[in-house]
Amino acid sequence: MFRISNHYVSKIVSVLLVVEVLVLLGAAYAGAALRYMEVGTTVTVPSLDHFFTSAVAFALAIVFSMSAMGMYQLDFEEGLRHPFLMKLMPSFVMGFLILTLVFYVAPELSFGRSILVIVFALAAVGIFIARMIFFKTSEARFLQSRIMFLGGGPLAKECSELAERANRYHRYDIAGFIPAPGEELCVTQSDLLKMRDGDSLVKLARQYNVSEIVVSVQNRRGGFPIKELLDCKLQGLKVTDAATFFERETCQIRVDSIQPSWLVFGGGFDQSFVRIFMKRTFDLICSTIILALTFPLMLLAALAVWFEDRGPVFYSQERVGKDGKSFFVHKFRSMRADAEKGGKPQWAAQNDPRVTRVGNFMRKTRIDELPQILNVFKGEMSFVGPRPERPYFVEQLIEVVPYYNVRHSIKPGITGWAQVRYGYGSSAEDALQKLQYDLYYVKNNSLFLDFLVLINTLKVVLFRSGR
């Protein structure tokens, strides 16, 4: 893993992305060359001055479409099975539609239909071959990192289970565990690394060819080998604590494995003037574009809501925003008008019987969220951020969920990291899971992460998953 704008990015996925961009660029040039080789034909192609730009536009359109289809959220157990092909073809269809729009706006970039057919065929073959080679080489040992865990208790066991997941982007080979004095042992005796008298952590790590030590000891008082860990770091070994390991591997911040000092002294939480200015500019640009593209759809949605039960079209509800200040969020009404006739707020659940037929469709496609663009223009919300919750539930969650108020340090969003990474939430436990994603976003928020959230939101809408 490495970091781009504080966000952890898989090296394996990054390599695959670069390879596939090169494959797509090569397909564009190869397609044009093959078409030119046909004797006695007239070919409509962009000029040489524009061809590289056309090839780049083609590559970006396909990569964007593949990202929106979730093709860079890899599953090594799935490999090149049926779901891969089921995503590749729709990705190319979406890419074709994007290119059609680009060529309509800038016709000088158009390949011409005959070349485009060849380019798409070559690209499909190239992507399939690249993926086949990638999944084969991903099993090679040189792509694995050898790690050991300092600790043998519940935290170490949980970290090791996370590292052993076969479909993870980062492959690990676990050398073993070094138990901490007085800690409950939760791993098998055969997995323990034996340290002889006089051995140091550095020597043990070299003996087992370890490149990273994950510190997974919950109680660091008394006998904690801080000097030896410093020696390991000075010798070039990577030393990572459990909270950072969880953050890196799950893109969450685990509230049960962090100390307040980790949040205070760690990086992130950028609230500088530059970040706020760029965030606001991003919000206004995105909201303007989305409003322009979806305005006819919003009109149809409003008519559908009214025709179904002749009730109110819009639904306004009090939510908690930045710094704990309340505001009213606006949505298309997706539930019956008497959904909370008892007066007591209720968690919205999946397959909620209070949801209307039109409302059910709007929820799955996120159409009901579109009026919140007005909240973005007013400055009460951002386009990307933690979803705002109702004051009634916030008061309950603050009491039972640690660090819940941290999510109120930035503006809430129409879509967010938790919404694209976690399913529908209808309980305090779900709120805890979503908070851990929200904390990751609050700590590491950037324009790069906002862009990833938007791509993943498109995937959620297309596959009707998430919240």
UniProtKB/TrEMBL annotation:
It comes from Massilia litorea. It is found in: Membrane. NCBIfam families: EPS_sugtrans, EpsB_2. Keywords: Membrane, Transferase, Transmembrane, Transmembrane helix. Residues 279-462 form the Bacterial sugar transferase domain. One of its GO terms (biological process) is colanic acid biosynthetic process. It comes from the Bacteria. It is a multi-pass membrane protein. PANTHER family: COLANIC BIOSYNTHESIS UDP-GLUCOSE LIPID CARRIER TRANSFERASE (PTHR30576), UDP-GLUCOSE:UNDECAPRENYL-PHOSPHATE GLUCOSE-1-PHOSPHATE TRANSFERASE (PTHR30576:SF21). GO terms for molecular function: undecaprenyl-phosphate glucose phosphotransferase activity. Coiled coil: none annotated. Belongs to the bacterial sugar transferase family. InterPro entries: Bact_transf, EPS_sugar_tfrase, Sugar_tfrase_EpsB_2. This is TIGR03013 family PEP-CTERM/XrtA system glycosyltransferase. One of its GO terms (cellular component) is membrane. The chain crosses the membrane at residues 12-31, 51-72, 84-105, 111-134, 284-307.
